[in-house]
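Final report, closing paragraph on structural work. Over the funding period we assembled a curated collection of sequence-structure pairs, and we close with a single example.
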Amino acid sequence: MKFAVEKIRSAGNDKIILTERGTTFGYQDLVVDYRNIPWMKNHRVPVVMDCTHSLQQPNQPGGITGGDPQMIGTIAMAAIATGADGYL
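Its predicted structure, as stored:
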């Protein structure tokens, strides 16, 4: 995200927020690597967690993306515990 932040700043915009959203690992689930939150905070911008996106379950057999909403609170608390400035 370093280069993205630098590009936005070079255009004169200092209103930057980075978002952790999860990564697909091919198990029909998104997985959050919470190390990303402190790494992104190193760029001195707020970092928020997109809880609902990170719980998506893409590539389901029926062709419709699923989810795991009962885990929203857990994802949100873990994000705050690892230094996120907020969540959505």
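Helices lie at 2-10, 36-41, 51-54, 72-81. Residues 72-81 form the longest helix (10 residues). We thank the funder for supporting this effort.
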